[in-house]
Specification:
This protein is an alpha/beta fold. The chain folds into two domains: 2-157 and 313-345, Medium-chain alcohol dehydrogenases, catalytic domain (Quinone Oxidoreductase, Chain A, domain 1); 159-290, NAD(P)-binding Rossmann-like Domain (Rossmann fold), CATH 3.40.50.720. The protein is built from nine helices and 17 strands. It has helices at residues 41-48, 97-100, 159-169, 185-196, 211-217, 228-233, 279-284, 296-309, 323-332, and strands at 2-8, 15-21, 29-39, 64-71, 83-86, 89-91, 112-113, 133-137, 142-143, 177-181, 200-205, 221-224, 238-243, 258-266, 287-290, 315-318, 338-342. The strands form four sheets. Strands 3, 4, 5, 8, 9, 16 and 17 form a seven-stranded mixed β-sheet that branches. Strands 12-11-10-13-14-15 form a six-stranded parallel β-sheet. Strands 1-2 form a two-stranded antiparallel ribbon. Helix 3 crosses helix 8 (296-309). The longest helix has 14 residues, at 296-309.
C-alpha cells in the first residue's frame, strides 16, 4: 500500500514529507486510514536520538485514530468503516505470561513499538502515525467509543494510558490524595483521570503560571515546588505522586511529600535521574517506581472510561506542515495540551 507521511531523516528532528510502502495485509491484519495523529514528547526524544541511534528515515507517531479500510480474511473483530485507534505498540509474542496477563507492554520477548523497531515477522522497520495509513495486526487495534470526539481521542492512546495505568495499579479511588508533577500532555490527562476516579488532585509545578489550566482540568490545589515554605507544609500529604517531568531531575524535591507507604511513579523521564538521597524513602517507607504505558485490554478500558466520564484531552489541531513548529513548542515545555495532526491536511 503506497502512502505518505512526515519523517525525520536524521537526528535534527526536522520533519519532511516522505512517500513509503505499508506492508500487504496478512490474514490477521487491519488496514486503517489515519484521520488524526497526536504528537508526544517521546516522539521528539526518539527522532532526536536522545534514547539511542534510530533507523532513519523514521515516521513517528503512536497516538493514532482512524477508520478501517480493509481487513485480512481471519479478522473477526473489525469491519470496514469502524472507528479505531492504535497506541504505542503493534505486536508482542502473545505467548508469554505477561502477554497472557494482558500486559503486552512487558512482553518477555519484547513488544514491538509502533515505530522505529523491526517487525516481528518481516524485520522491516515499523513506521508510525504521522502518515495517511497504517497496517496493524487485529489484536493491537482498539475500538473508539461513539461518545468520544474523534479529533480529540488521539492523546488518550499514550498520555491517557500512561497515566491511567499507574492510577489503577496503585488503587486510586474516592478520597485518594494524588499529586501530579507537571501539567503538560501527560500531566493534564493525569489530573482529569484521577479527578474522575474521585481523588483529591494537586498539581505540583515550578510556578503557578498554569493554575487556571490545573483547576479547569479538575485539580483542587496547586503546589509551587520552588516555594520552600509551601513544600515544607505539604510534607507527607500525598498517597501517590505521578511524576510526568520528561527530563533529568531530582526526585528528592518530591519524595518528602509522600505519606508513609506512599509511592512516586515516574512516567515522564526515560533515562538518568539526578543522584538522590535515600533518607526520605527510609524514614517514611516511601517508594519510587516506574510505569510503562499499559496493555491492550487496559488501553481499551481507558478509552471506555473517558467515554463514560466525558474526558477529552486538551488538543490543538495542526496541519501536517506545522509539525516542526509543534516540536519547537515541545522543546520549550510551555504548553498544557497536546498537538494533534489533522491528516486531512496531508495528500498523497
Amino acid at each position: 500500500m503506497k502512502t505518505i507521511g512526515y519523517a525525520a531523516h536524521s537526528s535534527d528532528a526536522h520533519m519532511v514529507p516522505y512517500h513509503f510502502e505499508r506492508r500487504a495485509l496478512r490474514n490477521n491484519d487491519v488496514a486503517i486510514e489515519i484521520l488524526y495523529s497526536g504528537i508526544c514528547h517521546s516522539d521528539l526524544h526518539t527522532v532526536n536520538g536522545d534514547w539511542g541511534p534510530q533507523p532513519y528515515p523514521l515516521v513517528p507517531g503512536h497516538e493514532i485514530v482512524g477508520q478501517v479500510i480493509e481487513t485480512g480474511p481471519d479478522v473477526t473483530g473489525y469491519k470496514v468503516g469502524d472507528k479505531v485507534a492504535v497506541g504505542c505498540m503493534v505486536d508482542s509474542c502473545q505467548q508469554c505470561d505477561q502477554c497472557h496477563n494482558h500486559e503486552e507492554q512487558y512482553c518477555r520477548n519484547g513488544m514491538t513499538p509502533t515505530y522505529g523497531a523491526p517487525d516481528r515477522i518481516s524485520g522491516e522497520i515499523t513506521q508510525g502515525g504521522y502518515s495517511k495509513h497504517i497496517v496493524v495486526r487485529e489484536e493491537f487495534v482498539l475500538r473508539v467509543p461513539d461518545a468520544l470526539d474523534m479529533p480529540r481521542v488521539a492523546p488518550i492512546l499514550c498520555a491517557g494510558i500512561t497515566t491511567y495505568s499507574p492510577l489503577k495499579t496503585w488503587n486510586v479511588k474516592q478520597g485518594s490524595r494524588v499529586g501530579v508533577i507537571g501539567l503538560g500532555g501527560l500531566g493534564h490527562m493525569a489530573v482529569k483521570l484521577a479527578a474522575a476516579m474521585g481523588a483529591e488532585v494537586t498539581v505540583i509545578s515550578r510556578s503557578n503560571a498554569k493554575a487556571e489550566e490545573a483547576k479547569s482540568s479538575g485539580a483542587t490545589g496547586m503546589l509551587v515546588s520552588t516555594d520552600a515554605e509551601a513544600m515544607k507544609k505539604a510534607t507527607a500529604s500525598f498517597d501517590l505522586i505521578l511524576d510526568t517531568v520528561p527530563v533529568k531531575h531530582n526526585v528528592d524535591t518530591y519524595t518528602p511529600l509522600l505519606d508513609i507507604d506512599g509511592t512516586l511513579v515516574i512516567v515522564g523521564q526515560v533515562g538518568p535521574l539526578e543522584e538522590s538521597m535515600t533518607i526520605p524513602l527510609i524514614m517514611g517507607r516511601r517508594r519510587v517506581a516506574g510505569s510503562l504505558i499499559g496493555g491492550i485490554k487496559e488501553t481499551q478500558e481507558v478509552l471506555d472510561f473517558c467515554a463514560e466520564h466525558n474526558i477529552h484531552p486538551e488538543c490543538q489541531m495542526i496541519n501536517a506542515d506545522e509539525i516542526n513548529d509543534a516540536y519547537a513548542h515541545l522543546k520549550k515545555g510551555d504548553i498544557a495540551h497536546r498537538f494533534v495532526i489533522d491528516m486531512a491536511s496531508l495528500s498523497l
